[in-house]
Amino acid sequence: MIEKTVFKNSKEIILYVKKVYGLNIYSVRKINRGSANIYSLNDDKYILKEFQSKYSKTEVDKEIKVINHLKNFDIKVPEYIKTINGKYNNLYKNKTIIIQYFIEGYTLKVNEGDYKQTIECADYYGKIVSALKSLPIELPDANLSNWYSTENFALSIKKHEALLPMLNDNDEIDKKIKKDILDKIEMIKLISSNTNFEEMSKLSVMNTHGDYSLLQFIYKDGKINAVIDFVSACKMPIAWELIRSYSYIDKDAKDGEFNLDTFVDYVKTFNQYIPLNQYDLKYMTHLYLIQILNSNFGYKQYIYNHENTDLLNFGYLRTTICRFLFNNALVITKRLEDALYKNE
Prior knowledge:
The chain is an alpha+beta fold and about 350 residues long. Helix content is about 45%, strand content about 10%. It folds into 2 domains: about 10-100, Phosphorylase Kinase, domain 1; about 115-340, Aminoglycoside 3'-phosphotransferase, Chain: A, domain 2 (Alpha-Beta Complex).
């Protein structure tokens, strides 16, 4: 959900940019993309972004340091413009504002990437994680271990169970939702009883984007022209972001089932930059499965407002992914182990 902007009108933006950045602005156009308030200035010469209130100035400062570091490795990232006072961002009415040069290109929708674009996604991720190994600042720990604690599994089950009394057994959509929720609860119970928490603690935790997927790409001529939105940069198990990013881009995975040949190539491409350990391969599927099993997003929104059919379809898709990963976890792990370690 997009928050209300701090700017009353275009005139206020023009005056603000002149005062803080010293730039003469003659045109302002709102861009409807993502959950932030974004404006094109001077016919797409500049982009003004107003961060959501959940992002502090400290977090935006972190993003800028990450981006400036990645530039040293020829990774295509946004170029921020400094204020008159030499700062890369500014606090205005308790919201952090940045201005960057416009990046020419277009975006893709989820699961619109062909094979080459899918592999390019893995290649870029490898370059980014490799470059961030030498990042001179400390990134926050995402602490994904909270996802797979015994306590969190129990809370997840309660969260799903709380929706069941709100469903009507005489409604066909509600009946499907109920089946999906019950299936997810059963999968959570089985996963929780078969998870080796000590082994999962051995996953490779490294500096990473934090929200890496094709939703953060700007394309030009079919290739990535920039990777954006590093405000969530953190330390986390890279296996999670690797499998998640694949599920978002490959057109063959649009129905929730992976093309395993492509997925193996995807992981092999990343592995050329950052060698994955045996626990990364063993628990990659489990890690992503646990995260989406724990979420009732889509179903909850539809139950409270039946107009949220797009979110409901997203909930259906995630449950399909859960079933696929749950039923094929061992096969996927074996394919990855054979591809990466069979010649060792």
